[in-house]
Amino acid sequence: MNRIIVCLKQAIDVSQLKVDPATRQLITAGAAKKISDFDKNALEEAIRIKEKIGNIEILTVTVTAEDAKTVLREALAMGADKAYMVNDPSFKDIDTLGTAYILAETIKKIGNFDLILCGETSLDSFSGLVSSRLAELLGLPQITSVRKISVEGDAVSAERALEDSIETVKAKTPALIAVTREINQPRIPSLMMIMKASKKEIITWTAADLNLPREKLDMKIEVKEVLAPKTERKRVKITGESAQEIAERLVKALMEEGVIGR
Amino acid sequence: MSENKGIIVYSEKHDLLLEILGKGREIADKLQKELAAVLIGYGVQGKANELIKHGADKVFLIDNHALTSFQIEPYLNVLHSLATKYKPETVLIGSTRNGKPLAARLATRLQTGCIPDCNRLSVDEEGRLVCERITYGGTAIAKITFKTKPQIATIPPRTFEKPQPKERNGQIINFDVKIETPKTEIVETKPLEVSAVRIEDADVIVSCGRGLEKKEDIVLLEELAQILNGQVGNTRPLAEDRKWFTEWVGLSGHKVKPKLYIACGISGVIQHVAGIRDAKLIVAINKDENAPIFEVADYGVVGNLYEILPALKEALKKQLQ
Lengths: 262, 321
Known about the structure:
The complex is a heterodimer of chains A (262) and B (321). Chain A is α/β, with parallel strands linked by helices. Helices cover 28% and strands 30% of the residues of chain A. Chain A has a 9-stranded mixed sheet, with helices on both faces. Chain B is α/β, with parallel strands linked by helices and 321 residues long. Chain B folds into 2 domains: 168 residues, HUPs (Rossmann fold); 122 residues, TPP-binding domain (Rossmann fold). Chain B has a 7-stranded parallel sheet, sandwiched between helices. A 5-stranded parallel sheet of chain B has the order 13-12-14-15-16. Classes of the chains: A alpha/beta (262), B alpha/beta (321). At the A-B interface, helix 3, helix 4, strand 9, strand 10 and strand 11 of A face helix 4, strand 5, strand 7, strand 8 and strand 11 of B. Strand 11 of chain A pairs antiparallel with strand 11 of chain B, so a sheet runs across the interface.
Protein backbone atom coordinates (compact mmCIF):
# COMPACT_ATOMS: atom_id res chain seq x y z
CA MET A 1 0.00 0.00 0.00
CA ASN A 2 1.53 3.29 -1.14
CA ARG A 3 -1.16 5.90 -1.20
CA ILE A 4 -4.45 6.55 0.54
CA ILE A 5 -6.82 9.27 -0.61
CA VAL A 6 -9.27 10.64 1.95
CA CYS A 7 -12.30 12.63 0.79
CA LEU A 8 -12.98 15.51 3.15
CA LYS A 9 -16.00 17.75 3.11
CA GLN A 10 -15.93 21.19 4.63
CA ALA A 11 -19.31 21.04 6.34
CA ILE A 12 -21.39 23.53 8.24
CA ASP A 13 -21.03 22.93 11.96
CA VAL A 14 -24.68 22.10 12.52
CA SER A 15 -24.39 22.44 16.28
CA GLN A 16 -23.73 26.14 15.79
CA LEU A 17 -26.24 26.73 13.04
CA LYS A 18 -28.81 29.44 13.80
CA VAL A 19 -32.35 29.82 12.56
CA ASP A 20 -34.23 33.04 11.89
CA PRO A 21 -37.28 32.50 14.11
CA ALA A 22 -39.49 34.76 11.98
CA THR A 23 -38.91 33.03 8.64
CA ARG A 24 -37.63 29.63 9.88
CA GLN A 25 -34.79 30.07 7.36
CA LEU A 26 -31.32 28.85 8.28
CA ILE A 27 -28.67 31.50 8.68
CA THR A 28 -25.94 29.80 6.66
CA ALA A 29 -24.02 32.93 5.72
CA GLY A 30 -21.01 33.11 8.01
CA ALA A 31 -21.92 29.82 9.71
CA ALA A 32 -18.99 28.02 11.35
CA LYS A 33 -17.40 25.32 9.20
CA LYS A 34 -15.40 22.24 10.05
CA ILE A 35 -14.28 18.92 8.60
CA SER A 36 -17.38 16.76 8.46
CA ASP A 37 -17.20 14.43 11.47
CA PHE A 38 -17.41 11.17 9.55
CA ASP A 39 -14.67 12.29 7.16
CA LYS A 40 -12.45 13.00 10.14
CA ASN A 41 -12.91 9.37 11.16
CA ALA A 42 -11.86 8.38 7.64
CA LEU A 43 -8.72 10.52 7.90
CA GLU A 44 -7.92 9.15 11.36
CA GLU A 45 -8.21 5.62 9.99
CA ALA A 46 -5.83 6.44 7.12
CA ILE A 47 -3.29 7.77 9.63
CA ARG A 48 -3.64 4.64 11.76
CA ILE A 49 -3.07 2.42 8.73
CA LYS A 50 0.03 4.46 7.92
CA GLU A 51 1.29 4.18 11.50
CA LYS A 52 0.91 0.42 11.29
CA ILE A 53 2.32 -0.23 7.84
CA GLY A 54 4.52 2.82 7.29
CA ASN A 55 5.63 4.54 4.11
CA ILE A 56 2.17 5.50 2.90
CA GLU A 57 1.29 8.88 1.45
CA ILE A 58 -2.01 10.29 2.69
CA LEU A 59 -3.69 12.79 0.39
CA THR A 60 -6.94 14.57 1.11
CA VAL A 61 -9.36 15.80 -1.55
CA THR A 62 -11.97 18.48 -0.92
CA VAL A 63 -14.56 19.86 -3.32
CA THR A 64 -15.77 23.25 -2.20
CA ALA A 65 -17.42 26.43 -3.41
CA GLU A 66 -15.52 28.54 -0.90
CA ASP A 67 -12.05 28.52 0.55
CA ALA A 68 -11.40 25.62 2.92
CA LYS A 69 -7.73 26.15 3.78
CA THR A 70 -8.38 26.72 7.47
CA VAL A 71 -10.06 23.37 7.98
CA LEU A 72 -7.58 21.62 5.67
CA ARG A 73 -4.75 22.86 7.92
CA GLU A 74 -6.34 20.78 10.65
CA ALA A 75 -6.31 17.71 8.41
CA LEU A 76 -2.64 18.27 7.66
CA ALA A 77 -1.93 18.74 11.36
CA MET A 78 -3.65 15.46 12.14
CA GLY A 79 -1.30 13.67 9.75
CA ALA A 80 -2.32 14.05 6.11
CA ASP A 81 0.71 14.65 3.87
CA LYS A 82 -0.87 16.86 1.26
CA ALA A 83 -4.29 18.40 0.69
CA TYR A 84 -6.00 19.00 -2.63
CA MET A 85 -8.68 21.67 -2.63
CA VAL A 86 -10.85 21.90 -5.73
CA ASN A 87 -12.43 25.27 -5.23
CA ASP A 88 -14.75 27.02 -7.61
CA PRO A 89 -17.63 29.39 -6.89
CA SER A 90 -19.65 27.51 -9.52
CA PHE A 91 -19.72 24.53 -7.16
CA LYS A 92 -22.29 26.37 -5.05
CA ASP A 93 -25.06 24.73 -7.05
CA ILE A 94 -24.05 21.12 -7.45
CA ASP A 95 -25.65 17.99 -6.09
CA THR A 96 -24.20 14.65 -5.00
CA LEU A 97 -23.65 13.48 -8.58
CA GLY A 98 -21.76 16.67 -9.45
CA THR A 99 -19.66 16.38 -6.30
CA ALA A 100 -18.81 12.76 -7.01
CA TYR A 101 -17.95 13.64 -10.60
CA ILE A 102 -15.52 16.37 -9.50
CA LEU A 103 -13.97 14.05 -6.92
CA ALA A 104 -13.57 11.35 -9.56
CA GLU A 105 -11.91 13.73 -12.03
CA THR A 106 -9.62 15.08 -9.30
CA ILE A 107 -8.57 11.61 -8.24
CA LYS A 108 -7.92 10.61 -11.86
CA LYS A 109 -5.69 13.66 -12.24
CA ILE A 110 -3.79 12.82 -9.05
CA GLY A 111 -3.04 9.37 -10.40
CA ASN A 112 -2.42 6.08 -8.65
CA PHE A 113 -3.83 5.13 -5.28
CA ASP A 114 -4.56 2.00 -3.30
CA LEU A 115 -7.42 3.05 -1.12
CA ILE A 116 -10.02 5.80 -1.00
CA LEU A 117 -11.51 6.44 2.41
CA CYS A 118 -14.73 8.42 2.86
CA GLY A 119 -17.08 9.17 5.71
CA GLU A 120 -20.36 7.25 5.51
CA THR A 121 -22.34 10.49 5.36
CA SER A 122 -21.86 14.20 5.93
CA LEU A 123 -22.54 16.21 9.03
CA ASP A 124 -24.67 18.85 7.31
CA SER A 125 -26.61 17.41 4.39
CA PHE A 126 -26.55 13.86 5.79
CA SER A 127 -27.16 12.36 2.35
CA GLY A 128 -24.57 9.60 2.39
CA LEU A 129 -24.56 9.23 -1.39
CA VAL A 130 -21.24 10.66 -2.55
CA SER A 131 -18.98 7.74 -1.63
CA SER A 132 -21.21 5.27 -3.49
CA ARG A 133 -21.51 7.54 -6.49
CA LEU A 134 -17.71 7.92 -6.51
CA ALA A 135 -17.19 4.16 -6.36
CA GLU A 136 -19.54 3.81 -9.33
CA LEU A 137 -17.80 6.51 -11.38
CA LEU A 138 -14.37 5.02 -10.71
CA GLY A 139 -15.58 1.42 -11.04
CA LEU A 140 -14.05 0.47 -7.71
CA PRO A 141 -14.89 -2.31 -5.27
CA GLN A 142 -16.83 -0.56 -2.52
CA ILE A 143 -17.31 -1.42 1.14
CA THR A 144 -19.74 0.75 3.15
CA SER A 145 -20.78 1.06 6.82
CA VAL A 146 -17.31 0.00 7.91
CA ARG A 147 -16.32 -0.08 11.57
CA LYS A 148 -12.99 -1.91 11.25
CA ILE A 149 -10.34 -2.14 8.53
CA SER A 150 -7.32 -4.38 8.12
CA VAL A 151 -4.89 -4.16 5.23
CA GLU A 152 -3.59 -7.51 4.00
CA GLY A 153 -1.05 -7.02 1.22
CA ASP A 154 -2.90 -5.95 -1.90
CA ALA A 155 -6.28 -6.60 -0.31
CA VAL A 156 -8.37 -4.98 2.41
CA SER A 157 -10.66 -6.69 4.82
CA ALA A 158 -13.41 -4.67 6.52
CA GLU A 159 -16.15 -5.22 9.04
CA ARG A 160 -19.53 -3.82 8.02
CA ALA A 161 -22.13 -3.02 10.65
CA LEU A 162 -25.47 -3.92 9.07
CA GLU A 163 -28.91 -3.71 10.68
CA ASP A 164 -28.98 -7.30 11.83
CA SER A 165 -25.50 -8.67 11.21
CA ILE A 166 -21.80 -7.94 11.11
CA GLU A 167 -20.36 -8.79 7.73
CA THR A 168 -16.66 -9.21 7.03
CA VAL A 169 -15.86 -8.31 3.45
CA LYS A 170 -12.66 -8.57 1.47
CA ALA A 171 -11.66 -6.62 -1.63
CA LYS A 172 -8.58 -6.27 -3.79
CA THR A 173 -7.08 -2.80 -3.88
CA PRO A 174 -7.63 -0.25 -5.25
CA ALA A 175 -10.90 -0.04 -3.36
CA LEU A 176 -13.18 2.50 -1.72
CA ILE A 177 -14.27 2.23 1.89
CA ALA A 178 -16.87 4.37 3.69
CA VAL A 179 -16.51 4.43 7.48
CA THR A 180 -18.91 5.00 10.35
CA ARG A 181 -18.14 7.08 13.42
CA GLU A 182 -17.64 4.05 15.63
CA ILE A 183 -14.46 3.04 13.76
CA ASN A 184 -12.19 5.29 15.86
CA GLN A 185 -11.79 8.43 17.90
CA PRO A 186 -10.03 11.07 15.77
CA ARG A 187 -6.91 12.56 17.36
CA ILE A 188 -6.58 16.18 18.36
CA PRO A 189 -3.35 17.52 16.82
CA SER A 190 -0.66 18.76 19.21
CA LEU A 191 0.89 22.20 18.89
CA MET A 192 3.99 20.56 17.42
CA MET A 193 1.92 18.82 14.75
CA ILE A 194 0.11 22.06 13.95
CA MET A 195 3.44 23.84 13.49
CA LYS A 196 4.81 21.06 11.31
CA ALA A 197 1.68 21.16 9.20
CA SER A 198 2.22 24.78 8.23
CA LYS A 199 5.00 23.58 5.90
CA LYS A 200 2.76 21.06 4.19
CA GLU A 201 1.22 21.83 0.85
CA ILE A 202 -2.38 22.68 -0.05
CA ILE A 203 -2.83 22.37 -3.81
CA THR A 204 -5.67 24.44 -5.21
CA TRP A 205 -7.42 23.55 -8.45
CA THR A 206 -10.42 25.14 -10.10
CA ALA A 207 -13.08 23.72 -12.44
CA ALA A 208 -10.95 24.95 -15.35
CA ASP A 209 -7.89 23.05 -14.12
CA LEU A 210 -9.90 19.85 -14.35
CA ASN A 211 -11.56 20.73 -17.68
CA LEU A 212 -14.94 20.05 -16.14
CA PRO A 213 -17.77 20.46 -18.64
CA ARG A 214 -20.51 22.49 -16.95
CA GLU A 215 -23.29 20.15 -18.09
CA LYS A 216 -21.72 17.35 -16.04
CA LEU A 217 -22.35 19.48 -12.96
CA ASP A 218 -25.98 20.30 -13.67
CA MET A 219 -28.29 19.61 -10.78
CA LYS A 220 -30.46 16.51 -11.10
CA ILE A 221 -32.56 17.58 -8.15
CA GLU A 222 -34.29 20.82 -7.23
CA VAL A 223 -34.44 22.02 -3.66
CA LYS A 224 -37.86 23.62 -3.16
CA GLU A 225 -37.38 24.77 0.41
CA VAL A 226 -35.22 24.26 3.49
CA LEU A 227 -36.95 25.37 6.66
CA ALA A 228 -36.60 24.74 10.35
CA PRO A 229 -39.49 22.59 11.52
CA LYS A 230 -42.25 24.31 13.45
CA THR A 231 -41.92 23.59 17.11
CA GLU A 232 -45.32 23.88 18.62
CA ARG A 233 -44.51 22.76 22.11
CA LYS A 234 -46.14 24.12 25.22
CA ARG A 235 -42.90 24.81 27.07
CA VAL A 236 -44.56 24.85 30.50
CA LYS A 237 -42.17 24.74 33.45
CA ILE A 238 -43.36 22.63 36.38
CA THR A 239 -42.11 23.98 39.68
CA GLY A 240 -42.71 23.17 43.31
CA GLU A 241 -41.31 23.28 46.83
CA SER A 242 -40.09 19.68 46.75
CA ALA A 243 -39.38 16.89 44.31
CA GLN A 244 -42.57 15.26 45.53
CA GLU A 245 -44.67 18.33 44.80
CA ILE A 246 -43.13 18.71 41.33
CA ALA A 247 -43.72 15.03 40.58
CA GLU A 248 -47.37 15.23 41.63
CA ARG A 249 -47.97 18.32 39.51
CA LEU A 250 -46.32 16.66 36.54
CA VAL A 251 -48.42 13.52 36.91
CA LYS A 252 -51.56 15.68 37.09
CA ALA A 253 -50.58 17.47 33.89
CA LEU A 254 -49.88 14.17 32.11
CA MET A 255 -53.24 12.78 33.24
CA GLU A 256 -54.99 15.87 31.84
CA GLU A 257 -53.13 15.45 28.57
CA GLY A 258 -54.43 11.90 28.42
CA VAL A 259 -51.00 10.38 27.80
CA ILE A 260 -50.97 8.28 30.97
CA GLY A 261 -53.57 6.45 33.00
CA ARG A 262 -56.44 4.33 31.89
CA MET B 1 -41.50 -4.72 -23.33
CA SER B 2 -43.37 -1.48 -23.88
CA GLU B 3 -42.35 1.77 -22.33
CA ASN B 4 -44.35 1.91 -19.17
CA LYS B 5 -43.14 4.78 -17.03
CA GLY B 6 -44.46 3.28 -13.86
CA ILE B 7 -43.10 3.06 -10.33
CA ILE B 8 -40.62 0.39 -9.27
CA VAL B 9 -40.06 -0.43 -5.60
CA TYR B 10 -37.32 -2.55 -4.11
CA SER B 11 -35.84 -3.46 -0.76
CA GLU B 12 -33.78 -6.46 0.25
CA LYS B 13 -35.70 -6.31 3.55
CA HIS B 14 -39.11 -7.86 3.03
CA ASP B 15 -41.02 -5.86 5.66
CA LEU B 16 -39.59 -2.61 4.40
CA LEU B 17 -40.55 -3.55 0.85
CA LEU B 18 -44.14 -4.04 2.01
CA GLU B 19 -44.13 -0.64 3.73
CA ILE B 20 -42.86 1.04 0.57
CA LEU B 21 -45.44 -0.81 -1.51
CA GLY B 22 -48.17 0.83 0.58
CA LYS B 23 -46.91 4.33 -0.17
CA GLY B 24 -46.03 3.37 -3.74
CA ARG B 25 -49.63 2.23 -4.32
CA GLU B 26 -50.92 5.59 -3.11
CA ILE B 27 -48.67 7.50 -5.51
CA ALA B 28 -49.34 5.11 -8.39
CA ASP B 29 -53.09 5.58 -7.95
CA LYS B 30 -52.75 9.34 -7.84
CA LEU B 31 -50.70 9.37 -11.05
CA GLN B 32 -52.60 6.46 -12.59
CA LYS B 33 -49.38 4.56 -13.11
CA GLU B 34 -48.41 0.97 -12.68
CA LEU B 35 -46.65 -0.21 -9.54
CA ALA B 36 -44.03 -2.92 -9.86
CA ALA B 37 -42.12 -4.64 -7.07
CA VAL B 38 -38.73 -6.25 -7.59
CA LEU B 39 -37.96 -9.54 -5.92
CA ILE B 40 -34.30 -10.55 -5.99
CA GLY B 41 -32.73 -13.61 -4.35
CA TYR B 42 -32.64 -17.36 -4.49
CA GLY B 43 -35.70 -19.45 -3.76
CA VAL B 44 -37.77 -16.33 -3.20
CA GLN B 45 -40.59 -16.88 -5.70
CA GLY B 46 -42.90 -17.86 -2.84
CA LYS B 47 -42.95 -14.24 -1.70
CA ALA B 48 -44.22 -12.82 -4.98
CA ASN B 49 -47.91 -13.22 -4.19
CA GLU B 50 -47.54 -11.38 -0.93
CA LEU B 51 -46.15 -8.41 -2.85
CA ILE B 52 -49.20 -8.41 -5.10
CA LYS B 53 -51.48 -8.62 -2.06
CA HIS B 54 -49.70 -5.57 -0.65
CA GLY B 55 -50.27 -3.49 -3.76
CA ALA B 56 -47.96 -4.51 -6.61
CA ASP B 57 -49.46 -4.73 -10.12
CA LYS B 58 -46.38 -6.55 -11.30
CA VAL B 59 -43.60 -8.46 -9.64
CA PHE B 60 -40.30 -8.76 -11.44
CA LEU B 61 -38.74 -11.94 -10.16
CA ILE B 62 -35.02 -12.47 -10.44
CA ASP B 63 -34.32 -15.79 -8.81
CA ASN B 64 -30.77 -17.01 -9.14
CA HIS B 65 -28.31 -18.90 -6.99
CA ALA B 66 -25.74 -16.17 -7.57
CA LEU B 67 -28.11 -13.72 -5.82
CA THR B 68 -28.45 -15.68 -2.57
CA SER B 69 -26.98 -12.90 -0.45
CA PHE B 70 -26.88 -9.20 -1.12
CA GLN B 71 -23.79 -7.99 -2.95
CA ILE B 72 -23.80 -4.62 -4.54
CA GLU B 73 -22.55 -5.29 -8.07
CA PRO B 74 -24.89 -8.16 -9.05
CA TYR B 75 -27.91 -6.55 -7.38
CA LEU B 76 -27.10 -3.20 -8.99
CA ASN B 77 -26.75 -4.88 -12.35
CA VAL B 78 -30.18 -6.48 -11.97
CA LEU B 79 -31.89 -3.19 -11.08
CA HIS B 80 -30.02 -1.31 -13.77
CA SER B 81 -31.01 -3.80 -16.47
CA LEU B 82 -34.59 -3.67 -15.28
CA ALA B 83 -34.64 0.13 -15.20
CA THR B 84 -33.11 0.31 -18.69
CA LYS B 85 -35.73 -2.01 -20.09
CA TYR B 86 -38.82 -0.99 -18.13
CA LYS B 87 -37.98 2.74 -18.01
CA PRO B 88 -39.67 3.57 -14.73
CA GLU B 89 -40.50 7.14 -13.91
CA THR B 90 -39.82 6.56 -10.23
CA VAL B 91 -37.74 4.07 -8.26
CA LEU B 92 -38.25 3.76 -4.49
CA ILE B 93 -35.61 1.79 -2.59
CA GLY B 94 -35.48 0.84 1.09
CA SER B 95 -32.95 2.95 2.94
CA THR B 96 -30.87 0.31 4.65
CA ARG B 97 -27.11 -0.02 4.92
CA ASN B 98 -27.19 -2.04 1.70
CA GLY B 99 -30.10 -0.32 0.02
CA LYS B 100 -28.71 3.19 0.13
CA PRO B 101 -25.46 2.47 -1.73
CA LEU B 102 -27.55 0.49 -4.21
CA ALA B 103 -29.81 3.48 -4.85
CA ALA B 104 -26.87 5.88 -5.08
CA ARG B 105 -25.07 3.73 -7.62
CA LEU B 106 -28.19 3.05 -9.66
CA ALA B 107 -28.77 6.82 -9.84
CA THR B 108 -25.17 7.33 -10.92
CA ARG B 109 -25.30 4.64 -13.60
CA LEU B 110 -28.53 6.22 -14.89
CA GLN B 111 -27.08 9.76 -14.50
CA THR B 112 -30.03 10.87 -12.43
CA GLY B 113 -30.89 12.36 -9.04
CA CYS B 114 -31.27 10.46 -5.80
CA ILE B 115 -32.96 11.77 -2.67
CA PRO B 116 -32.10 9.68 0.36
CA ASP B 117 -33.95 9.03 3.60
CA CYS B 118 -37.29 10.55 2.72
CA ASN B 119 -39.79 10.87 5.56
CA ARG B 120 -42.63 12.16 3.43
CA LEU B 121 -43.46 11.72 -0.25
CA SER B 122 -45.96 13.65 -2.30
CA VAL B 123 -46.55 14.58 -5.91
CA ASP B 124 -46.48 18.15 -7.24
CA GLU B 125 -48.66 19.76 -9.91
CA GLU B 126 -46.29 18.55 -12.64
CA GLY B 127 -46.52 14.99 -11.36
CA ARG B 128 -43.01 15.08 -9.94
CA LEU B 129 -42.17 13.30 -6.72
CA VAL B 130 -41.58 15.71 -3.83
CA CYS B 131 -39.52 14.33 -0.98
CA GLU B 132 -39.15 15.68 2.52
CA ARG B 133 -36.05 14.82 4.46
CA ILE B 134 -34.31 15.95 7.60
CA THR B 135 -31.14 17.88 6.95
CA TYR B 136 -28.52 19.99 8.71
CA GLY B 137 -28.36 17.54 11.57
CA GLY B 138 -32.05 17.99 12.33
CA THR B 139 -32.09 21.78 12.18
CA ALA B 140 -34.18 21.80 9.04
CA ILE B 141 -36.51 19.87 6.81
CA ALA B 142 -35.81 20.07 3.10
CA LYS B 143 -38.42 19.68 0.37
CA ILE B 144 -36.70 18.40 -2.74
CA THR B 145 -37.87 17.28 -6.14
CA PHE B 146 -36.27 15.97 -9.33
CA LYS B 147 -35.17 17.52 -12.60
CA THR B 148 -34.41 14.20 -14.29
CA LYS B 149 -36.00 10.78 -14.66
CA PRO B 150 -36.07 8.26 -13.23
CA GLN B 151 -36.60 9.85 -9.86
CA ILE B 152 -34.83 7.71 -7.28
CA ALA B 153 -35.65 8.05 -3.58
CA THR B 154 -34.80 5.94 -0.55
CA ILE B 155 -37.21 5.29 2.30
CA PRO B 156 -36.07 4.40 5.83
CA PRO B 157 -37.68 1.48 7.68
CA ARG B 158 -40.90 2.20 9.58
CA THR B 159 -41.55 5.48 7.78
CA PHE B 160 -44.79 4.26 6.25
CA GLU B 161 -47.39 1.81 7.51
CA LYS B 162 -47.46 -1.64 6.05
CA PRO B 163 -50.72 -1.83 4.04
CA GLN B 164 -53.45 -4.37 4.78
CA PRO B 165 -53.03 -7.31 2.42
CA LYS B 166 -55.97 -8.03 0.14
CA GLU B 167 -56.71 -10.33 -2.74
CA ARG B 168 -55.89 -8.58 -5.99
CA ASN B 169 -54.68 -9.47 -9.44
CA GLY B 170 -51.09 -9.10 -10.42
CA GLN B 171 -48.57 -10.44 -12.83
CA ILE B 172 -45.35 -12.25 -11.94
CA ILE B 173 -42.66 -11.77 -14.55
CA ASN B 174 -39.44 -13.78 -14.55
CA PHE B 175 -36.84 -11.23 -15.50
CA ASP B 176 -33.87 -12.75 -17.18
CA VAL B 177 -30.56 -10.98 -16.72
CA LYS B 178 -26.89 -11.80 -16.88
CA ILE B 179 -25.53 -11.70 -13.34
CA GLU B 180 -22.48 -9.50 -12.79
CA THR B 181 -19.63 -10.87 -10.67
CA PRO B 182 -19.22 -9.12 -7.32
CA LYS B 183 -16.04 -7.13 -6.73
CA THR B 184 -15.96 -7.97 -3.05
CA GLU B 185 -16.10 -11.24 -1.22
CA ILE B 186 -18.16 -11.84 1.91
CA VAL B 187 -15.84 -13.75 4.23
CA GLU B 188 -18.09 -14.03 7.25
CA THR B 189 -21.56 -12.99 8.45
CA LYS B 190 -22.26 -12.86 12.15
CA PRO B 191 -25.89 -12.32 13.05
CA LEU B 192 -26.45 -9.55 15.58
CA GLU B 193 -28.81 -10.01 18.43
CA VAL B 194 -31.57 -7.64 17.56
CA SER B 195 -34.04 -6.91 20.28
CA ALA B 196 -37.50 -8.16 19.37
CA VAL B 197 -39.01 -5.14 21.06
CA ARG B 198 -39.09 -2.20 18.76
CA ILE B 199 -38.79 1.18 20.36
CA GLU B 200 -40.75 2.66 17.45
CA ASP B 201 -43.79 0.79 18.75
CA ALA B 202 -43.60 2.14 22.30
CA ASP B 203 -46.39 4.41 23.54
CA VAL B 204 -44.19 5.73 26.31
CA ILE B 205 -40.42 6.15 26.24
CA VAL B 206 -38.38 7.08 29.29
CA SER B 207 -35.06 8.14 27.89
CA CYS B 208 -31.72 9.04 29.41
CA GLY B 209 -28.79 11.18 28.38
CA ARG B 210 -25.42 12.13 29.75
CA GLY B 211 -27.02 13.43 32.94
CA LEU B 212 -27.29 9.81 34.06
CA GLU B 213 -24.14 9.19 36.05
CA LYS B 214 -23.79 5.43 36.29
CA LYS B 215 -24.91 2.48 34.22
CA GLU B 216 -26.63 0.98 37.29
CA ASP B 217 -28.87 4.03 37.42
CA ILE B 218 -30.70 2.91 34.28
CA VAL B 219 -32.86 0.99 36.74
CA LEU B 220 -34.44 4.33 37.75
CA LEU B 221 -35.74 4.68 34.22
CA GLU B 222 -36.69 1.03 33.91
CA GLU B 223 -38.90 1.29 36.98
CA LEU B 224 -40.66 4.28 35.55
CA ALA B 225 -41.01 2.67 32.13
CA GLN B 226 -42.52 -0.40 33.75
CA ILE B 227 -45.19 1.59 35.59
CA LEU B 228 -46.04 3.45 32.39
CA ASN B 229 -45.96 0.31 30.30
CA GLY B 230 -43.25 1.85 28.18
CA GLN B 231 -39.66 1.32 27.13
CA VAL B 232 -36.31 2.80 28.03
CA GLY B 233 -34.48 4.86 25.43
CA ASN B 234 -31.18 6.72 25.37
CA THR B 235 -29.08 9.24 23.49
CA ARG B 236 -26.14 8.48 21.23
CA PRO B 237 -23.30 9.26 23.68
CA LEU B 238 -24.64 6.63 26.07
CA ALA B 239 -24.31 4.06 23.31
CA GLU B 240 -21.27 5.18 21.32
CA ASP B 241 -19.10 6.69 24.06
CA ARG B 242 -20.16 4.86 27.22
CA LYS B 243 -21.26 1.61 25.53
CA TRP B 244 -24.20 1.18 27.93
CA PHE B 245 -26.53 0.55 25.02
CA THR B 246 -26.08 -0.63 21.45
CA GLU B 247 -28.68 1.63 19.86
CA TRP B 248 -30.06 5.09 20.41
CA VAL B 249 -32.87 7.48 19.65
CA GLY B 250 -32.00 10.30 17.25
CA LEU B 251 -31.38 11.29 13.69
CA SER B 252 -28.74 8.62 13.13
CA GLY B 253 -30.57 6.07 15.26
CA HIS B 254 -34.23 5.33 15.87
CA LYS B 255 -36.83 7.96 15.08
CA VAL B 256 -39.70 7.49 17.48
CA LYS B 257 -43.25 8.73 17.80
CA PRO B 258 -44.56 7.80 21.26
CA LYS B 259 -47.50 9.44 23.00
CA LEU B 260 -45.14 10.43 25.79
CA TYR B 261 -41.38 10.93 25.71
CA ILE B 262 -39.68 11.64 29.04
CA ALA B 263 -36.17 13.01 28.48
CA CYS B 264 -34.08 12.58 31.64
CA GLY B 265 -30.71 14.31 31.80
CA ILE B 266 -30.79 14.90 28.04
CA SER B 267 -29.37 18.25 26.91
CA GLY B 268 -31.29 18.21 23.64
CA VAL B 269 -28.77 18.47 20.81
CA ILE B 270 -30.58 18.82 17.48
CA GLN B 271 -29.61 15.36 16.29
CA HIS B 272 -31.46 13.86 19.24
CA VAL B 273 -34.41 16.20 18.96
CA ALA B 274 -34.78 15.25 15.28
CA GLY B 275 -35.47 11.70 16.43
CA ILE B 276 -38.30 12.65 18.82
CA ARG B 277 -39.98 15.39 16.81
CA ASP B 278 -43.08 13.30 16.19
CA ALA B 279 -43.68 12.52 19.85
CA LYS B 280 -47.13 13.68 20.98
CA LEU B 281 -45.89 15.04 24.29
CA ILE B 282 -42.36 15.66 25.50
CA VAL B 283 -41.34 16.02 29.13
CA ALA B 284 -37.82 17.17 29.97
CA ILE B 285 -36.05 16.74 33.30
CA ASN B 286 -32.68 18.44 33.47
CA LYS B 287 -30.74 20.26 36.13
CA ASP B 288 -29.47 22.86 33.67
CA GLU B 289 -32.25 25.38 33.17
CA ASN B 290 -30.61 26.53 29.93
CA ALA B 291 -30.57 23.07 28.36
CA PRO B 292 -31.98 23.32 24.81
CA ILE B 293 -34.26 20.35 25.48
CA PHE B 294 -36.62 22.73 27.33
CA GLU B 295 -37.20 24.63 24.06
CA VAL B 296 -38.77 21.56 22.50
CA ALA B 297 -40.52 20.17 25.57
CA ASP B 298 -44.17 20.53 26.53
CA TYR B 299 -43.41 20.18 30.22
CA GLY B 300 -40.06 20.98 31.74
CA VAL B 301 -38.72 20.25 35.19
CA VAL B 302 -35.52 21.98 36.21
CA GLY B 303 -34.10 19.66 38.79
CA ASN B 304 -31.88 16.75 39.70
CA LEU B 305 -33.14 13.60 38.04
CA TYR B 306 -31.93 11.57 41.01
CA GLU B 307 -34.53 13.38 43.13
CA ILE B 308 -37.25 13.84 40.52
CA LEU B 309 -37.38 10.29 39.13
CA PRO B 310 -37.96 8.51 42.46
CA ALA B 311 -40.59 11.10 43.37
CA LEU B 312 -42.21 10.69 39.98
CA LYS B 313 -42.28 6.93 40.45
CA GLU B 314 -44.12 7.32 43.77
CA ALA B 315 -46.55 9.88 42.37
CA LEU B 316 -47.35 7.66 39.39
CA LYS B 317 -47.83 4.61 41.60
CA LYS B 318 -50.25 6.56 43.76
CA GLN B 319 -52.18 7.79 40.76
CA LEU B 320 -52.22 4.65 38.65
CA GLN B 321 -52.53 1.84 41.15
